[in-house]
Write a structure and sequence with these properties.
single chain, mainly beta, six-stranded mixed sheet, flat
Length: 485
Amino acid sequence: MAIPPSTLDPGSAELCSCVLTALTHTLPPYTPSPPAPSYSDRPSCGERSLQHAPGSRFRQRNPASTFVKEFKKATLVLRGQEPNIRTPWYGRDEVICGFVTFENPGRVSQVDILVEGKLNVTTTDGVSKVTNLVNASSTLWKKSSSSSAEGSCPEQVEFAFTLPESYQSGDSTYPLPPSFQEFDLGGSFLSIRTCYRIRVSVTKPPKNRFSFEKTEHLFLSFDYLPRSRSEDPTTTLPGCLANIKQLPNEWWQATSAVPVEGQPQLEPIFTNLFIPAARVYPLTEPIPFHVEVSGRRESLRALLRCTSPPESTSTSPAPSQPSSPTIPSSTSKRSSMSLVKGKSPASLSLSPGPQQRTRRQSCDPTNLKVFIVRQIKVEIKKKKVLKNVIIARGELESVPPLLDICRCGLGDACVTPEYLSWTGTLKPSPDVRTGGFEAEFVRVTDYVALAIGESEVPWTDIKNSVGIKLVTDPWEDPEPEFVLM
């Protein structure tokens, strides 16, 4: 219950007042703390990094590293570029920052900047379909109405701009496509090109009453290469059957039946193409693969052309009576293929006799190829064209077990299926700097393809293909850099 002020002792009130006065005089004066020192992950003078981990970012921009483009009376500088590059480039969500300097800034009255990107499709009729991807302009500096010296243009004018992630065309929104170009498309189209550039406009007033205002343009092209990485790691194991059997979930299998063209009496062969199950691969790392071809000897002989010489030759007595190897039973199609002892199609013409030569050799067919094909599709107003480009070729290597001739004595009439296997790796060409993408009129997709044949146009020989996605960066970050004191 509150006590009325009238009931308080006057002596107690005076004592409280004295205590408060004493506390006020004895407390130290308060001073604000100094601001915290500025922090930077860049070592200053006399310091060096002991350990550096890139983290989740794709690339660390170094502001001290610049790209310089000199013009007649001006210089355009971009910050955060890698040294010794011919064309500056930027990734997704990166800021284009830099500055422009002038030889005679006193003669400048206005400085404007324009960042633009265009998608240009040229037809055989000479008509170009142009789509604006980026069109952002800004005035960096403008001279005031005063003619005093304080109103003159500075020697260095800064600028900064962030590229958008998408663009709008009509009622649809598309991701901003990377820098890309392709010529000789065929059909109704000649070329397609996606390009980006910076334009700095420098306006100068007339020198006298008889001259006019003059505007000079500084152009600098740059590449837009959005970074990307896979959600899962890519296996680094070689594409051999032992690894596929031990880790079947790590591999993607594509199967197809291939008929023997021109010889309908022959049975078709079956192809199996194994690639890492993620199907999302970085451009900088090799992609392992495994190829298995199975079928009757006469069908394999009609389709494959083995050129390698026999690895070993031995003499063995012929069996007393023809016999066929037993195929082990298995619940897995993949494991049953690997357990069957195959026979080489390279030694098929044999006649039974008291002695027969057993030749064991690897088969390196010249008409069996594995490659990465990039398909470029352009479609405008019901006019469509497809162009395929090979961006990686695989070197096939025959893998054990080595195969020998048929011991049943039937030669080409042997009904026992043969199994041939190869392994190899695929790595895109260094000229390929971006993966597939989709824009308003264009779609770029990548495939791992298996081809059998020797046609001039390899696309007609493709028997098996798997769609993949190529990304710019691996799943794991690079190893951290250590610097020992």
